[in-house]
Amino acid sequence: MITKTVKQISEMIKIENDLSEFQNIEVRGLSIDSRKIEQGNLFVPFKGENSDGHRFVEEAIQKGAAAAFWQKDVPNPPLHLPILIVEDTLLALQELARAYRNMLNVRIVGITGSNGKTTTKDMTANLLAIEYKVQKTEGNFNNEIGLPLTILALEEDTEIAVLEMGMSSRGEIDFLTRLARPEAAIITNIGESHLLDLGSREGITEAKLEIINGLQENGLVTYYGDEPLLSEKLLDYKGNIMIKTFGRRGINNIYPVDIEQNDNGSVFSTNVSNSEFKLPVLGTHNVLNALAAMTVANQFGVPYEKMNEGFAKLKLTNMRTELLQGRKGEKIINDAYNASPTSMHAAIELLSHLPGYKNKILVLGDMLELGPEEKNFHLKMGESIDPNKINYVLTFGKLGEWIAEGARKKLPADHVFSFTEKQLLIEKIEKLVDEETIVLVKASRGMKLEEIIAALQ
Q1: What region holds the Mur ligase N-terminal catalytic domain (predicted)?
Q2: Which residues are annotated as a binding site for ATP?
Q3: pLDDT value, residue 319
Q4: pTM for this model (two decimals)
Q5: Residues annotated in a binding site
């Protein structure tokens, strides 16, 4: 993590006040939450519409913070304390991260996409760790606050940092990539998340492609080559970068030749290696995420033959195709972290093709932020379910009712149920499950379907 004196920080970014009294104080790391202060941290308060972190500056220093930022337009700064007055605390955080990143001899991998960013980040970091000292974005620290904090948490001897880059509108990834200056970038896919903000999949594509704006010269961008919107933009790209594709089809630089699924994950082979790869993660879509990670790791010199070492140690961030067990012996796939039409289709495909179960139950909730076509997306999702591969469909939420409406066109009416109360949904699931049952749970983050999973365990 960043370890600098107050004087050194004042040389990295513009400070508005005299710090000579405190210039030798050493800062170690940062915190934006006064409840999580660690000894020596720099506390960064933010001024919001409904709350103001400046109220907690003195408390943070009492708890062990070495110093704190203070926004210029906030009155009554406690100047008897080590306060660094800046024009804007968020901009100061970002500029400090930029200056620190430029001091480090670190190579950066940037990852964006509509779905699979966090999973691909975890895979990429594991594969690169076979040969390098690696750090990665923790949790979902992938925005204009989280990414600077991740950079400032990098150790000075870190060789590669794998950084997730999220967005909700145009220009956000452009800012993040120019700050990070990646040597390699992955675009996992183009889905329907943020249609409400960006209006179309074409708009989402443009926003994701901003990651190239900060890519270093001769850097690598690898993308999902089965997506026409990406291919149209990148096949004739004139910039001085390398372009590689991954996907299901043989037109890609790397693609799966064979995939076998079981409770323990996937076993697959590819066109680029004679090795067989064992991925301890469920879902064909995660094999595609693995191909993206493998492309970048190989570009950084990790041999394909060693990659199973990295896959064997893989542990995904929670609530992403996590296999659990319920009280009645049923298996539960917890994929409740988030959902879009693309990722929900992938989850349905996963459950449809998973062998070894007599009873397969889909528990699906609302997919949010899909714009004016949201009802149609949910209806079509229900219509896509194969009654020969799925036994029951249970939905939660007002939009989930449209999934049920579509599913009733395929499954018997007494095998499709719709709920707006979680307790009633839980009681229904408990009546349907036994030791030969597997339940998959998926919805947007706001639906909090992990509460259903907790009740079944």
Answers
A1: 27-101
A2: 113-119
A3: 64
A4: 0.86
A5: 113-119
